[in-house]
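Final report, closing paragraph on structural work. Over the funding period we assembled a curated collection of sequence-structure pairs, and we close with a single example.
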Amino acid sequence: VVKEGNVPEEWFIESDNTPKETKNNAIICFAVWLLSVLRGTPLWSISCMMLLVGHTHNKLDRFFSRLKVALCGHSFYTREQMIEVLKNGVK
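Its predicted structure, as stored:
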């Protein structure tokens, strides 16, 4: 991503409001590490947004559920192969 020049200025992480997945020190440390490693690139901000409790099943969940169904049972080793599987499997 860095070599291709596709680094965004801001990165938004939206997740469920649970410490089990993203509301924890590991994610915060990763964000700080990423910002330090990518110093000198356009990325200057990482924001973590937690969904309200009880409102976590949204369009994003449905989207990834459909991706999971389309990819299940298929092998792929490159991004291009994964995209081809998705094109053939998502209706």
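The radius of gyration is 16 Å. The chain has three helices and two strands. We thank the funder for supporting this effort.
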